[in-house]
């Protein structure tokens, strides 16, 4: 059974309370304002009040479900105004006819003036104005409700379309990141086959474990942060096999808790850029990678010097694609919940990335 506090049940309760208040005003408060002594109002009075309430309810829901959706929201404004005015005229003369049918004027005259003979006379203007105002209030409230419902439906559709667009875009971005990663990794293993076959075999084993992660975890929206960290460590170990002695790695990777989750392969492009641009075969170089979790907040940082890549290298052509896609993924997956800063320090030619994500 759905919870009673759902929007549908809440709307139903609001409608019931609204009509209950109208009934109280018309049936109880209005008669109490008259000086009747110990006499009871004639049945004709109650018949008219019930008729008035039923008529107003019919006007309200007809306007909500038929007139506004099929006429006003279709842009037929003048036709809608004519219908409202025509409805007011019909409402007024229907009340007159019903009063004559139940002999309302005569019964009310006999109740308030029992000693005077009844003679038909003109309408009581304040009463007619009050009844027309009730009609206009019913039209106004029902029109407002219909417009709000239309706005809510449009908003739900807009959110659904936006969600579909985001899911499609994320799938496209992940599809771009994966080939980029495998292209770089396969290049590394290819280089190792010319230098050390045993290391190349070890690299293939690590790559197969990483591929399993990519094939199974990357298809999900989120994964355990612990699995993502293990993937990062495998990647770093794989990259270390091709590093020369002049490259110094400063690693500080904290073991996260099992219950933290993160989008898969979100941090990989930052590591790729560090190893792509921060390694030199001739000069001394240093790469710093730090990952820490404090409470529900992830802190990730990379630092590396920048060395030029040959312009004819495939990596040069794809330079920046991983970073651009990752920035877009962060904006889509962690809006208002992440902070990404990066830049270059000209004094020591060092490039740095600082990422903070609220994982809550």
Task: Explain what you see.
With 360 residues, the chain is α+β, with helices and mostly antiparallel strands. It folds into two domains: 153 residues, no CATH class; 159 residues, Heat Shock Protein 90. It is 61% helix and 13% strand. It has ten helices and seven strands. The strands form two sheets. A five-stranded mixed sheet has the order 2-4-5-7-6, with helices on one face. It has a two-stranded antiparallel sheet with strand order 1-3. The longest helix is centred in the middle third of the chain and has 69 residues. The N terminus is likely disordered.
Fill in the keyword field for this structure.
5-stranded mixed β-sheet; transmembrane; membrane; two-stranded antiparallel sheet; alpha+beta; 360 residues; HATPase_C_sf; disordered N terminus; 10 helices; 2 domains; kinase
What does the secondary structure layout of this molecule look like, with pairings?
Blueprint: H1 7-32, H2 43-70, H3 77-101, H4 104-112, H5 125-193, H6 197-217, E1 223-224, H7 225-240, E2 247-253, E3 261-262, H8 268-277, E4 285-294, E5 297-305, H9 314-317, H10 321-333, E6 338-345, E7 350-358
Parallel strand pairs: 2-4
Antiparallel strand pairs: 1-3, 4-5, 5-7, 6-7
Helix pairs in contact: 1-2, 2-3, 2-5, 3-5, 5-6, 5-10, 6-7
């Amino acid at each position: 059974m759905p919870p009673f506090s759902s929007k549908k049940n809440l709307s139903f309760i609001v409608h019931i309370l609204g009509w209950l208040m109208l009934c109280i005003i018309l049936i109880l408060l209005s008669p109490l304002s008259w000086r009747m002594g110990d006499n009871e109002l004639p049945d004709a009075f109650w018949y008219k009040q019930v008729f008035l309430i039923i008529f107003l309810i019919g006007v309200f829901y007809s306007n909500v479900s038929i007139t506004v959706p099929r006429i006003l929201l279709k842009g037929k404004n003048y036709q809608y105004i004519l219908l409202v005015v025509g409805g007011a005229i019909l409402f007024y003369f229907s009340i007159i006819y019903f009063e004559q049918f139940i002999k309302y004027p005569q019964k009310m005259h006999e109740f308030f003036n029992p000693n005077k003979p009844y003679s038909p006379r003109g309408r009581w203007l304040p009463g007619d104005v009050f009844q027309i105002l009730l009609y206009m209030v019913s039209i106004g409230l029902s029109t407002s409700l219909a417009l709000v419902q239309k706005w809510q439906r449009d908003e739900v559709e807009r959110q659904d379309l936006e969600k579909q667009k985001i899911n499609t875009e994320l799938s496209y971005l992940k599809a771009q990141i994966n080939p980029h990663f495998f292209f770089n990794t396969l290049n590394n293993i290819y280089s190792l086959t010319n230098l050390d076959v045993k290391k190349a075999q070890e690299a293939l084993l690590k790559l197969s474990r990483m591929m399993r992660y990519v094939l199974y975890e990357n298809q999900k929206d989120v994964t355990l942060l612990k699995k993502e960290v293990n993937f990062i460590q495998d990647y770093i170990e794989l990259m270390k096999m091709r590093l020369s002695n002049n490259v110094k790695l400063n690693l500080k990777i904290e073991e996260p808790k099992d219950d933290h989750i993160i989008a898969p392969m979100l941090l990989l492009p930052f590591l790729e850029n560090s190893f792509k641009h921060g390694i030199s075969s001739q000069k001394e170089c240093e790469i710093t990678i730090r990952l820490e979790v404090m409470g529900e907040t992830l802190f990730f940082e990379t630092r590396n010097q920048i060395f030029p890549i040959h312009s004819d290298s495939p990596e040069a052509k794809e330079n920046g694609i991983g970073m651009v896609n990752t920035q877009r993924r962060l904006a889509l997956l962690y809006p208002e919940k992440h902070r990404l800063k990066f830049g270059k320090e000209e004094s020591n030619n060092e490039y740095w990335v600082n990422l903070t994500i609220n994982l809550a």
